[in-house]
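Milestone 3.1: sequence recovery, worked example.
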């Protein structure tokens, strides 16, 4: 690095950096002086420690001597950085931007927002991004946005996991200084929770710029107070339909949208307005997020990290993630090597808007290219043509109420993946009579009254009467009146409740068999093949578990078995001391689980593996998500016999399953039975909608289902049976032996 700094000194670059008017050429030369590929001194990719490298950058005796005679200076202008940090903070405060607040503006045709997501201290990458923006004529060399249609938003953690955190922040501040109402840096949990104080930011300051530490820390703390938690946009003719850009986890769901009074109704074009969160006013007309551009990373490792990712919906919002940090950590974790940003090109309304990805692989040293243009609300590849921006695609909305946060959240997440995958595949192949199909998915926390509120909201706010793959018996029965009367269609509920199989439940269409059928198959198999007579049952004490227990008792009594052990628990229980004692005092050979996945896993964890060394576990398909399977196999070292309602997602050669595997491979997600079930059922629903002539209503869809008779759908044979309102009757047995599943029915 010394030779680069000498080049810097003798070519006059020092003079330009002593200037107060920094430009893109200046920071480009600054980036040239720093080695981009620095390895940390530890193996913690989430908090890499660059202390050793930073210590070498600290001015030593030789450098200080050169500085005294004017031959050397630090390429980073620390004094000017501190002053600009103060100036930008003061400018933001003068606009009332202080504390916990959001910003919003009214959108119009041809407005554009550039999203830089999670810069993560990627100083060199950010400079290259800005060079591309200048090449496109969006900014000039002075960092001024010259195209009035544009805004730039840094969405997510910008100052971490890098040896060049202050340099990155410096460039962002220069952009904000030149464009105080056009460039915004959104606050993430990293800043909100003060995580920066004992990580990379503090290390760089303490090691290289300790003399200025108090000024930098106080200046950055002030700057954080001026960062908005989210940026919103809407249209004048539909103010309740929102675009939300945020990097703050608490705002992942709709948390503040309906506590802002008439704020979203009063926005003006080319004006950025502010709302402070401590001022809560109930909105008269419900607002909802149509598009969420999120800037937070998952809390666990994921299979892939791309510059632009279309994600499963949250509530009524489709989700996008933009990522822009080819730093050491993310190269190692995900092989992420792209300089990247996304541009939202706004149409006549949100649904006709386009999101574009500009990126290049910095390792390949190729040029920036437009990698793709996509409908912002469906993810379908689309050109940003005038026709597309003016004419929004018509939509058919399908709703769902899933547990995304409580005892069945893993199942809910997998089901959401399958729904999203099938709808995207349908849309890419032409949609439903030229109309795109889109999901609105609410979290019901596996709680009946919330599930009912969700269904009421789907109908009142969105006009949706087709509800796909709702999870759980008690939550579905909360809408018994609506389903029984046919006021709504409950398509393929993930429950084996016999109630929904009654002939007079006009709005119920089922794919999976009843829990009672699965229960009888499992117990009968274990009695016949393993000669078991001593059974125990861990069951959820509600309609779901009680129905299974009723059938279990019938099967045992029918086979002259009169004693067994019952271990009930209440829904969403987390402490199983009482249940553990019952198990301990019982004499059983096989334990059946008529329960929820998370509850069963926690029960088994609290019991421990030892008591199950001589006990055969068996469970319904409802319990068997991939996380539970892995827990039983890898952590307990046990095998569990599962009933299954779909073919083996890994080994089945049915056309629909092979199609599923191909699409899951494209998004780099592992196969599992619940996402497969959701993919199959959503694909069947879309197929039925295509057969409707005229308006696609829930009544018309029900008629199509009721007409099914030996219908071959990609290898599945579907027949509607009016006596139980079911279109499939297959059950498989999964012995967890790596082989294909055995057909039981």
């Amino acid at each position: 690095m010394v030779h680069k700094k000498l080049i810097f000194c003798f070519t006059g670059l020092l003079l330009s950096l002593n200037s107060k008017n920094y430009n893109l050429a200046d920071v480009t030369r600054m980036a040239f002086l720093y080695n981009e590929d620095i390895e940390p001194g530890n193996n913690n990719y989430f908090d890499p420690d660059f202390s050793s490298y930073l210590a070498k950058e600290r001015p030593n005796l030789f450098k200080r001597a050169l500085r005294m005679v004017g031959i050397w200076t630090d390429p980073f202008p620390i004094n000017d950085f501190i002053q600009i940090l103060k100036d930008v903070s003061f400018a933001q405060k003068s606009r009332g931007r202080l504390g916990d607040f959001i910003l919003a503006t009214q959108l119009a045709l041809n407005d554009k927002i550039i999203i830089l997501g999670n810069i993560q201290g990627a100083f060199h990458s950010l400079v290259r991004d800005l060079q591309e923006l200048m090449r496109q004529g969006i900014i000039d060399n002075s960092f001024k946005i010259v195209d009035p249609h544009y805004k730039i938003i840094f969405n997510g953690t910008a100052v971490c996991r890098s040896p060049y955190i202050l340099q990155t922040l410096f460039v962002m501040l220069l952009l904000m200084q030149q464009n105080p109402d056009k460039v915004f840096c959104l606050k993430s949990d990293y800043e909100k929770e003060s995580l920066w104080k004992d990580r990379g930011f503090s290390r760089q300051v303490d090691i290289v710029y300790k003399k200025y530490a108090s000024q930098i820390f106080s200046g950055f703390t002030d700057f954080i107070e001026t960062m908005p938690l989210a940026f919103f946009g809407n249209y004048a003719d539909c103010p309740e339909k929102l675009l939300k850009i945020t990097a703050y986890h608490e705002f992942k769901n709709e948390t503040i949208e309906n506590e802002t009074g008439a704020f979203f109704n009063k926005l003006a074009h080319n004006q950025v307005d502010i709302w402070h969160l401590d001022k809560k006013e109930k909105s008269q007309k419900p607002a909802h997020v149509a598009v969420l551009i999120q800037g937070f990373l998952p809390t666990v490792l994921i299979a892939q990290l791309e510059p632009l990712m279309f994600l499963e919906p949250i509530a009524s919002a489709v989700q996008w993630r933009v990522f822009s940090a080819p730093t050491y950590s993310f190269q190692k974790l995900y092989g992420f090597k792209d300089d990247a940003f996304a541009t939202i090109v706004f149409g006549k309304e949100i649904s006709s808007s386009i999101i574009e990805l500009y990126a290049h692989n910095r390792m390949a040293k190729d040029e920036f290219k437009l990698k793709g243009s996509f409908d912002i609300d469906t993810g379908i590849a689309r050109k940003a043509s005038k026709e597309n921006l003016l004419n929004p695609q018509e939509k058919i909305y399908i709703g769902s109420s899933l547990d995304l946060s409580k005892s069945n959240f893993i199942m809910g997440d997998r089901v959401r993946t399958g729904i999203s995958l099938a709808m995207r595949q349908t849309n890419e192949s032409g949609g439903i009579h030229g109309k795109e199909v889109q999901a609105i998915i609410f979290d019901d926390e596996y709680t009946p009254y919330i599930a009912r509120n969700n269904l009421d909201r789907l109908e009142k706010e969105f006009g949706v009467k087709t509800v796909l793959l709702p999870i759980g018996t008690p939550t579905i029965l909360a809408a018994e009146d609506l389903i029984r009367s046919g006021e709504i269609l409950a398509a393929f509920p993930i429950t084996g409740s016999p109630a929904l199989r009654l002939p007079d439940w006009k709005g119920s269409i089922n794919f999976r068999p009843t829990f009672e059928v699965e229960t009888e198959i499992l117990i009968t198999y274990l009695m016949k093949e393993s000669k078991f007579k001593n059974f125990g049952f861990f069951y959820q004490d509600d309609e779901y578990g009680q129905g299974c227990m009723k059938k279990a008792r019938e099967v045992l009594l029918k086979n002259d078995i009169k004693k067994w052990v019952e271990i009930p628990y209440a829904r969403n229980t987390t402490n199983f001391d009482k249940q553990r004692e019952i198990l301990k005092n019982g004499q059983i050979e096989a334990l059946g689980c008529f329960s929820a996945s998370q509850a069963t896993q926690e029960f088994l964890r609290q019991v421990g593996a030892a008591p199950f060394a001589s006990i055969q576990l068996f469970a319904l398909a409802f319990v068997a998500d991939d996380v539970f399977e892995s827990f039983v196999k890898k952590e307990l070292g046990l095998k569990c016999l599962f009933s299954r309602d779909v073919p083996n997602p890994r080994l089945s050669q049915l056309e629909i399953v092979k199609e599923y595997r191909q699409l899951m491979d494209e998004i780099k997600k592992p196969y599992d039975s619940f996402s497969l079930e959701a993919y199959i059922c959503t694909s069947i629903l879309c197929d039925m909608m295509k057969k409707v002539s005229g308006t696609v209503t829930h009544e018309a869809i029900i008629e199509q289902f009721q007409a099914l008779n030996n219908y071959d759908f990609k290898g599945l044979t579907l027949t509607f049976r009016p006596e139980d309102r079911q279109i499939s009757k297959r059950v498989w047995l999964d012995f967890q032996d790596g082989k294909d599943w055995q057909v039981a029915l």
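The first helix runs from residue 2 to 10. The first strand starts at residue 101 and ends at 106.
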